[in-house]
Design goal:
271 residues; alpha/beta; Rossmann fold; Dihydrodipicolinate Reductase, domain 2; 8-stranded mixed sheet; 5-stranded mixed sheet; 8 helices; 13 strands
């Protein structure tokens, strides 16, 4: 089987560099290019010492010259949309871990993927444990009336709550089938102390140094609670999921949202 040619968008960011290293070390993939708006030079050295790949601030230039099979995007919502709009019409598949994509943006991606019959995978989290947490939370939600989600990240994360926390809350709401119950305090001594809410699920965001990523769900019902916790220790934890997605996107011609649907844990597709 021929190696999958991969270009990384957002390659100079922390996640982008981790992805680039994973692509270099995986026997089924080979890096052929890198793009980043902050690019100054024209090449990016491989961390394994096996040469360099073309680097550009223009993803379109990398696609035209390097002809990748897949673009892996870890930039931001705007960068992800640019990657899809540039890659898909050129017949290049996209795997994106950029968060903050709206329902309207995902609809546009789905239309582009279907029109050009080119696969796209968009996931808010590529950590296998986090995806399993969402799956288990969806199952547990039918048996509980109350749920709180607490997520904690490093102090430089720009969005709150995290995309994963939102995905967890949506999974809980889907599993429960209706809005959950939530306590509304008669007196709120500190504004926002109960966090944000989604379908009755309270979501709390913590930001501080010393933390990479942690997601915790606590369900409550009469006389008992159930807690599900996932901790991310370092960015390497995302790489097995990213590599699974890179291989999976080669065999699809549509938009797939969520790593759960790559792993076969998602809801059955409507026919």
């Amino acid at each position: 089987m021929a190696q999958i040619k991969v270009a990384v968008n957002g390659a100079l960011g922390r996640m982008g560099m981790t992805v680039f290293g994973a692509v270099c070390s995986n026997p089924d993939t080979v890096p052929v290019g890198a793009a980043d708006l902050k690019a100054k030079g024209t090449t990016l050295n491989r961390p394994d010492g096996k040469g360099a790949v073309p680097l550009s601030a223009d993803l379109g230039e990398i696609i035209r010259n390097a002809r990748p099979d897949v673009v892996v995007d870890f930039s931001n919502s705007e960068g992800a949309m640019n990657a899809v709009r540039t890659s898909v019409p050129a017949g290049v598949r996209v795997v994106s871990g950029s968060t903050g994509l709206t329902a309207q943006a995902l609809e546009e991606i789905g239309i582009l993927a279907a029109k050009h019959r080119v696969g796209v995978i968009s996931a808010s989290n590529f950590a296998l444990g986090a995806v399993l947490l969402m799956h288990l939370a969806r199952i547990a939600a039918r048996y509980f009336d109350y749920a709180d989600v607490v997520e904690a990240h490093h102090e430089t994360k720009i969005d709150a709550p995290s995309g994963t926390a939102i995905s967890i809350a949506r999974a809980i709401a889907e599993g429960h089938g209706q809005p959950l119950l939530t306590n509304i305090p008669e007196k709120e001594t500190v504004k926002g102390a109960r966090g944000g809410t989604h379908e009755g699920i309270n979501i709390h965001a913590v930001r501080m140094p010393g933390r990479l990523a942690r997601h915790e769900v606590t369900f409550g019902t009469q006389g008992q609670t159930l807690a599900l916790i996932h901790d991310t220790i370092n960015r390497d934890c995302y790489m097995p999921g990213v590599m699974l997605a890179v291989k999976h996107v080669m065999s699809t011609d549509r938009l797939v949202v969520g790593l759960d649907n790559v792993l076969g844990l998602g809801k059955p597709a409507k026919t």
